[in-house]
Design goal:
This protein has about 450 residues and is α/β, with parallel strands linked by helices. It has helices spanning about 1-10, 10-25, 35-45, 100-115, 140-150, 160-165, 215-230, 270-290, 310-325, 345-350, 375-395, 400-405, 415-425, and strands spanning about 50, 60-65, 70-75, 80, 95, 125-135, 175, 180, 185, 190, 190-200, 240-245, 245-250, 260-270, 295-305, 310, 330-335, 355, 355-360, 360, 370, 430-435, 440. Strand 1 and strand 2 form a beta hairpin. The longest helix has 21 residues, at about 270-290.
């Protein structure tokens, strides 16, 4: 462990420089061109051969210890969020790393540098796959829908896309430490989500001269939002349902009745069953609003992220590793379930997975006050911790990794079974058919 700590220390400046560069060059999902290039160049300078994602950002590399054993995946996320109010956002795009992913990338680079140090692989069994992955933040759904239509991606989330492409084939267990606010900690995971793009379709007319000849798509959309708000008390507290639509297009000009209004939303929940049930209710509310105003509504339901289940044995190992490198720093082992969502949840459905947290940020996550104020904790100590986890997992014949793998109970038998399930959540098309006899046929689910 001392060797691991010293190896990270020798690359301190590399880590800190990367954190600042990526902070100053924020890019949203599947657009992380500068960030991915920066990481690629530094990995290659360290001597790594990379497998670069075809047609999108991101890459991975594999380290072979030379001794047979399981394969461990360690990840860092490339993308930023959008917060135009943040004082350090990109003035053109509003992008900013008010999510801490810049620190994750810097940490991943530090891990890569440390593992290249002489003797670092001695006594380890198995392989380590390091991955810089795009598009964790589930935003710009319209943009990603277009990428999907063009065949450039199949899934909105980068880890889901990499899983589908086979970039994680052969991996047995995975972890990623997320930047956090508070303590070094492990939790019980997070809820999942389904992504929604909602298009209300009305009929345009002159807003002053003949509004009665139109069907107002904006009024239908606002009725739909209100209808969703009216059903919130029907969601069980234990299911952790969250629904939060935004208007992304509210009309074309002020003197015309809006013929097309677009929304984006998630339906989040603590389990797939809870998400599916809540989504049917939400679709019924959205569709009923369109029907009430003689409009139509197209709802594009796309699988977002699975609920994240942190493996308990893996959590214990993470705690043990932290005690090895920082015995005097408080470590929090809690049972909290986050009501955010992450595509790490997709991996947790088929392999032992954890996403612990490293402090070093402050302010409001995804908000204008967020910043990395302690890169020592967020990046340097974090890198030491992750290297220590890798060593504990793969030393002594990979005994700890093998125990975690053996005792893990996956939700799905294979990646193919998992992807087939989430693919079945896709549903698109207009939800109302107006019949000639004055009746209407409504569809809210498959």
């Amino acid at each position: 462990m001392k060797k691991a700590i010293d190896a990270v220390e020798r690359h301190r400046q590399l880590i800190l420089d990367a954190e600042r560069y990526i902070w100053k060059n924020p890019e949203t999902g599947y657009k992380e061109y500068k960030t991915s290039k920066y990481m690629e160049e530094h990995f290659e300078a360290l001597g790594y051969e990379l497998v670069k994602a075809d047609g999108i950002t991101g890459f991975y590399t594999q380290i072979d210890t030379g001794c047979e054993g399981p394969e461990l995946l360690i990840l860092g996320e490339l993308d930023s969020i959008i917060c135009p109010e943040h004082p350090e956002c990109d003035p053109e795009t509003g992008a900013v790393h008010a999510c801490g992913h810049n620190a994750q990338c810097a940490t991943l680079l530090g891990i890569a540098a440390a593992l290249k140090e002489p003797g670092m692989l001695d006594g380890l069994c198995g392989k380590i796959r390091l991955c810089a992955v795009p598009a964790e933040e589930l935003l710009e759904i319209g943009y990603r829908t277009e990428l999907k239509k063009q065949g450039k991606i199949k899934y909105f989330g980068g880890k889901s896309e990499f899983l589908h492409r086979g970039y994680f084939d052969g991996v047995d267990l995975a972890f990623m430490v997320h930047t956090g606010i508070g303590n070094f900690a492990v939790t019980n995971g997070s809820i999942g989500c389904l992504a929604k793009r909602i298009v209300y379709k009305g009929t345009a007319s002159h807003a002053g001269g003949s509004p009665w000849t139109g069907n107002n798509a904006l009024y239908a959309a606002t009725c739909g939002i209100n209808a969703v708000n009216a059903i919130r008390e029907t969601f069980r507290d234990s299911n952790l349902i969250r629904v939060h639509p935004i208007v992304t297009h509210g009309g074309d000009m002020v003197n015309a009745i809006p013929a097309r209004v677009e929304l984006e939303s998630y339906v989040r929940g603590g389990s797939f069953d809870a998400i599916v049930d809540a989504n049917k209710r939400v679709n019924r509310a959205l569709t009923g609003a369109a029907l009430s105003l003689g409009c139509n509504v197209e709802i594009i339901d796309t699988p977002g992220y699975a609920p994240m289940y942190d493996d308990r044995n893996f959590k214990v190992l993470a705690q043990d590793a932290f005690k090895e490198i920082a015995p005097d720093i408080f470590f929090e082992f809690n049972e909290h379930v986050s009501t955010g969502s992450t595509d790490m949840g997709d991996l947790s459905c088929i392999m032992p997975t954890i996403q612990p947290y490293a402090p070093g940020a402050r302010g409001e996550a995804h908000g204008k006050t967020y910043e990395i104020f302690d890169p020592e904790s967020a990046c340097v100590t974090n890198a030491k911790w992750q290297v220590a986890m890798a060593l504990l997992l793969l030393q002594n014949g990979a005994e700890r990794a093998k125990q975690i793998i053996a005792e893990f109970k996956p939700q799905f038998a294979s990646k193919e079974a998992f992807l087939a399930y989430v693919d079945a959540l896709n549903l698109t098309g207009d939800r109302i058919e107006y019949n000639k006899d004055g009746t209407a046929t409504v569809r809210v689910s498959n």
